[in-house]
Fold each of these.
Amino acid sequence: MIKADEREKLKKHFRDKLLKYIELFNSTVSSPNGDWVVKGFIDIAKNIYTISIDTKVVSKIMELLLFPKICRFAEENSLKMVLCKEQNFYPDITFVDDKNHKFALDLKSTYRKNDREVNGMTLGAFTGYFRNRSSKKNITFPYEQYAGHFVLGVIYSRAEQASDERKIYRLNELQNITSVVRDFCFFVQEKYKIAQGRPGSGNTKNIGSVTKIDELVQGKGPFVTLGEDVFDDYWMYYLTKDMARAVDLKNAPYRNLKEYEQYKKLKR
C-alpha cells in the first residue's frame, strides 16, 4: 500500500504532467476561430455527410481525435498505456509508470447549458468494482491498485443552429459546413474533486458530476473539503430506492451529503 503523503505527491506529479498538454489537446480539436475541426464524414466518392449533435457521437469522435496526442503524452513521459478491454470497462486508459504506479484516466465531455453551467457528466459506477476493490470485473486493474483516478474533461458549446443532416456536401463546399460544436475548455481533475452527492442521469448506477463550470475546471466539488476517504465511503454505501428495497429497508440511510453528514455525525 502506498502511504497517503506519497500518494498525494504521485497524483500531483501525474496531473501536473498532463496539464502541460492541455493546449495541445485544444489545438488538436479546434480551429483558430474556436470551431471544431471536424465537419463531417467523407466517403470514397468524396461526399461529406454532416455530424449529428448527439453527445455520444461528439464524445466518440473527440476520443478519436485526442488519442494520438494522449499516446504522445505517455511516450514523452515514459508511461505505459493500457486500454480498457470493453466499452463498459473502467477506466478508459490506465497509465503505469516505471515503478508500477497506476493512474486511471477517463475521457469525458459535456456541453454548456449557459455561461455558468453544463449538462453534467457521469464519473463511473458506484457499485461493482468500486465497492469490491479487489475485483477484476469490468475494470482493467482492481480499483485498489490505482494511485489516482482522474478525468480529462472537455466542455464545449453546441451550435445555435443545427446542420441539415440530409444535405450532402462536396470537398469544395467544406467552408459552408457549420461545426456542430465549438469553444472548447479542457481540464484535468481527480474524480472525487468534481463529484456531487447524487447519481448521474439515467437509471445506471453512476456517480454524477457537479454542473457548475468553475467547479469542474477548478476541482471545487463538495467532496474536496471532506476528502477522498469520505467520497469513497459515501458512494460505497450509497443506496438508490431500489437498492434499499432489495435489502428490506424502507428508506436509504441517506440521499444526499447533508443527510450523510447527519447519519455519520460529521462536523464541518
Amino acid sequence: MRYALSFAVAAGLASMIASPFARAAENDDRFTLRLGAMDVDASGEITANTVFEGEDLQFSQDFDFGGKEVVPRIDGTFRFGDRSRLVFDYFKYDKDRDATLNEDLSFDDVTLPAGSFARAQTQFQLASLMYDYSIVDSDAVSVGLQIGAEWAKLEGSLHAEAGEDVYDASSSEDGFAPVVGARVTFTPGDKWLVNLQGQYLDADWGDFGDYEGSISRANALVEYRLTKNFGIFAGYDWFKLDATKNGSDGALGLDQRFKGPIAGVTLAF
C-alpha cells in the first residue's frame, strides 16, 4: 500500500501546480480500449538454497532469453460515474531459447555432458481488473487510487538431450491476489492525453500455492486522438516478478524483469 500512497501524494502535488490545460476528449468517453504491442526485453536471476548434510548451500545465476520479443498488450477503461471507472489490462510473454551446455549436468540418473543441446521456454501472463476512484478531478489533471484483483500465470519447461539421453521437465503455477495502484492523467490539449500508472501485488495476499513474493508494474503512455473515437499511443511499460517457491528440501527463487516500449491504437466510444 505504501507504493500507491506515495504515488498519489506526488500526483496530488503535481495537480496543484499544473497550468489550466483544456479537458481532453477522454474525459467524455464511456469506454476506451487500447490495442497494442510491447517490444519486451526480459532479464532475470534464478536463486536456490537448500541444506545438504547439515551445510547450507546457495546458488545464484543471472540469465536472459537472448533478444527481444514483440508481445500483445491490451488495456481499457469503463467509466460509470464522474469519478468512478473500471480499469483492466492483459499482458502475455512467451519466449524460448536454445543453448549448448558448457558443463556437465546431472538430473536423477541422467547425466548430460558439456556440449549437449538444451532448450528452455517460459511463459508469463498477467491480467488485472481494478476499481479506480478519482480523488482529484480537474480540467488539467485526474488522480485516481485503484484496488482490485490480478491474475498471474507462470509456466516454464526445459528439454535437454545428448545422444540417446533426454531430460524433460516443466512447471506451471497461477493464482489470484488483490492489487493496489495509482493513476495520474494529464490532458494538455483537446487531442492529447498523458497517463501514468503503478500497481503492486503481494503473492501472500492471494492463492499462489507455495509461492511467495510480489509483482510490481509501472507504465506511461502518450495518446493523440486523430478523431473523437480513434487515436494512437506510444509509451513504456515495466514489470518485476519476484517469486520464491518453498519446498521440503529448500527454496527456488525467480527475479524476472520485463521492460520495453509500447505502441498501438485507441478506440473510444
